[in-house]
Design brief:
Elements (H helix, E strand, L loop, with lengths): L2 H7 L2 H10 L4 H19 L2 E4 L1 H10 L10 E5 L9 E2 L8 E2 L5 H9 L2 E6 L11 E2 L3 E2 L1 E2 L2 E5 L5 H8 L5 E6 L5 H7 L2 E4 L20 E6 L2 H11 L17 H6 L6 E4 L11 H16 L3 E4 L7 H26 L9 H12 L2 H21 L5 E5 L14 H14 L8 H12 L6 H6 L3 E4 L12 E5 L4 H15 L13
Parallel strand pairs: 2-5, 13-14, 13-15
Antiparallel strand pairs: 1-5, 3-4, 6-7, 8-9, 10-12, 11-12, 11-16, 15-17, 16-17
Amino acid sequence: MSVGHTLWAQDATGLADLVRKGEVSPIELTEAAIARAEATRPDINATAEPLYEAARARAKTIDRSLPLAGVPFAIKDLGIAIKGVPTHGGSRIPAWLADVNSVLTDRYLAAGLVPIVTSTAPEHGLRLMTESKAFGITRNPWNTGHTSGGSSGGAAALVAAGVVPVAHASDGGGSIRVPSACTGLVGLKTSRGRIPLTPLVSESWYGMVVDHAVTRSVRDSALLLDLTHGPDRLSPYAALPPKGTFTAAAARDPGKLKLAVYRKSPLDLPVSLETLKALDTAVALAREGGHAVEEIDLPFIGRDFISDFCRTVASAVAGTMRAEALRVGRSVAGDIERATRVLGRLGEMVSAGETYAGLQRLHATSRRLIEETARYDAVLMPIIAHPPLACGAMDPKGADDLIENLLDKLHLTPLLRLKPLFGQLMDKSLWFTHWPAIQNVSGQPSIALPVHVTDAGLPLGIQAAGRPGDEETLLSLAAQMEKISGWLGRRAPLKVPS
C-alpha cells in the first residue's frame, strides 16, 4: 500500500503507531499530505496558508517517540496563532503576524503533530458555511456542490478529503459540530475552560468559544484531548478535571446509560425529515448499545434564548471590529463583508446594560438546563435542520440589504425597535441550524456523531450533549456507537492519488 493510501486509510492514532514501528516515516507522511492537499485544493478550496517547507523541515527532525509523531495536521485560520504565519480570520482585513505561538499550538507541536496548512474559515467565524470574499467557497468532499459547514469548514473538508486525519477547530455557536455533521466526522465541542485560548485572549465571545478538533475517529478526539487539555498560568478558569484519561474513556464500555432525546426546534423553524431520520438512527444505535432513551422537551430554550445569544454575539463582533480598526490604524468598514458589518452595527446599537442583562438571562437559563437534564448521561439532539446545503444557499444579501437600510434610518433608537431586526437576521442566518448554540451558552460538552448518510449521499450527523466537564461519558458512548454502526470505515467518494 502506498503512503498516500495509508494516509487515507488510517486515523491519526494508527499513523502514529506506524511511525513508531518504523513502517512509515514522518517525512513520507508529510509529503503524502502535501501532495493530497495540492491534488484536492482546486476541488475543495480548504487551504488558507500552505506551510509546506516548515512541515518538511519539522518532519525530518521530529522525535518519533512522541504520541502523534509525524501525523499531518491543519490549524484553523482563526483563534490560535502560529509564530510567523499570517492569520487572516477569513477576512480581507490585513493579516496579523503572530510573534508567539498560542499555548494550544505549542501543545500540538509537543504531541508530535506536523502542521501542513492553515484551514479556511468564514470571516471571523460568523457563518455556518465556509464562504468568504477573501478565500472563496470551501466545498464538501462528499459533493463539491455542497457546503462543508462552518466556521471550521476548511478543517472538516481537509479531514474528510483525506489530506489530514485530524484538524484543529473551534466552536462558538456550532463551528465544530456543524462541519462535522456536514462531512461525516466526529467533532467534540469541549467543556468551557477545558482547553486554554491563551496568550492571545483569556476567553472569546464571553466564554462561549472553545477549541478542539474534527477527527475521523473517536479515539483520535480522545487522544488529542489528553494531549492538549488543562489550564495554563494565564487561564481565567478551568473545566472540572477528568476522572481518568480521555483515551481510557473512549476504550471502555460505557455501561447502561440514561439518555434523553430533544427533537424540537428552539426557533420553531422547519426540521427536515432527513434530520429526524438521522436522530432516529442515533436513538436506535443507543438502544442497541443497551441504553435507556426517553423523549424530553426543553420549553425554556426558545426564541428569547437564541435572540439573547445573537445579541451577545453581535456585541462581541462590534468589539472585535473596534479592535481590528485599532490594530490596522484605520476603519475596517471597507474591508469586511456586509454580513459582518451589519452584525457589528447591530452590536453597536445594543447598550452595555442590555448586553449584561442578556448575559444574565442566558446564564439563568443555562443553570436551569443543567439542573433539569442532570439525571441524563447525555441528551441526543440535531445539529443541522437540513442536509448540507448547496454552496451559496445561505447568501445573506437579501436580509442584509433590508437590515442595513433600516439601520441607516434607526441610528440609535431604543432596543425595542431593534428586536424585529434581530429576528429577521436570526431566522435568516440560523435557518440551517437551531441547536448548537445551546451548549456554547451553557458551557456543556457536546459531540457530533456521523450516524447517517442521506439517499443523495450527503452526511448528516447529530449530537450528544453531556454534563458540564463530562467529556469522558460522551467519548465512551460515541466510541460504542462508532463500533456498532461501522461509520469509521466511511470515506468521501474521492479518488485517492497513488
